[in-house]
Amino acid sequence: MKKLSRKGLFNKAWKLTSEVVRRKGIKGDYNYCFTCLSLHKWQDLHAGHFKHGKSKRLYFDLRNLRPQCNKCNTYLNGNRDVFAYRILKTEGEKELDFLMKHGVKDHYFSNKELKEIIATREKELNLKILI
Q: Binning pLDDT at 50, 70 and 90, where does residue 130 land?
């Protein structure tokens, strides 16, 4: 197997994390957009970040990610007001406070961390523990 560069590891970690987010909680092939509640095939959804930024500590953190449709994630820039409201309603004030506080912290993901994320996400997908 070819050794991946840090960028390759980062991209693979994101691809797997995105799939976990978009598949989580679904039965069959469809899932809801977290912000507008429209129904889509999981493959057509995005893994939307509440707190954005590839250099942020929460980039791969599942607490910061939810399935979003293209409209909400791309054209409405994450639809963040609704995103915050829905986190507050589904997860509570403590979770929203955590994301607000930790979503601004920068972090450099080491190769070791990225490999751990990849291993965890592969396990989650292989064991189908998301459904």
A: low
Rounded Cα distance, 89 and 92, in Å: 6
Mean pLDDT of 66-81: 97
pTM of the predicted structure, to 2 decimals: 0.91
Q: How many residues does the chain have?
A: 131
Confidence band of 131 (pLDDT split at 50, 70, 90): very low
Instruction: For residue 23, give the amino acid letter.
Output: R
Instruction: Write the secondary structure of the chain as one string of H (helix), E (strand) and C (coil).
Output: CCCCCHHHHHHHHHHHHHHHHHHCCCCCCEEECCCCCCEEEHHHCEEEECCCCCCECCCCCHHHEEEECHHHHHHCCCCHHHHHHHHHHHHCHHHHHHHHHHCCCECCCCHHHHHHHHHHHHHHHHHCCCC
- Domain extents in the chain: 6-127
